[in-house]
Amino acid sequence: MSAATATTAAVTTGSATGPATATSPSGQAAPAPATPARPASSSPERTGARTSEAAELITGARERIDALDDRIIGLVQERMAVSAVIQKERIASGGRRVNLSREMEVLAHFRDALGKPGTALAMTLLELCRGRI
Which tens digits make up the pLDDT trace of 87-104? Predict the structure, then answer.
């Protein structure tokens, strides 16, 4: 199987593991985030494709991206909840709200994995998770 065929198969079939389930800091399953209905049209006009075959592939790929985005949003919300627990305990024990050395570790981890844009993504995550108490 060629790389392009493998990519097409992965896009159209999705992940074998299915959607991730989030858990709260207490370990209980968190409800899945509500997903607004999205129009599903595989017309060449809607997708920018020049053939209906390409439009169908693009539509399937976009549906997969939408599902991944929903999972990412759920994971970010879970990260925010866990971060709030950490901050609450740190402050209750007399510590500071933010641990800058830990934030530097997170920034380095994202930069190493994703390059310069990873740093911006990590900064956004840290901002979302900081100071909610």
Answer: 999 999 999 988 999 999
CA distance 32 to 73: 10
- Token pair, residue 8, equals 């097409």
Closest alpha carbon to 90 in 123, 130, 30: 130
* Strand, helix or coil for residue 49: coil
Cα separation of 51 and 53, whole Å?
5
Taking the CA atoms of 60, 76, 108 and 124 in sequence, report the sign of the dihedral they define.
positive
DSSP 3-state assignment of 29? strand
Interatomic CA distance for residues 50 and 117, integer angstroms: 32
Phi, psi of 64 (to 5 degrees): -65, -40
> pLDDT tens digits, residue range 6-65?
444 445 444 444 444 444 444 545 555 555 555 556 666 788 888 888 999 999 999 999
Nearest Cα to Cα of residue 77 among 113, 13, 23, 38 = 23
- DSSP letter for 23, please: B
In whole angstroms, what is the distance from residue 102 CA to residue 115 CA? 19
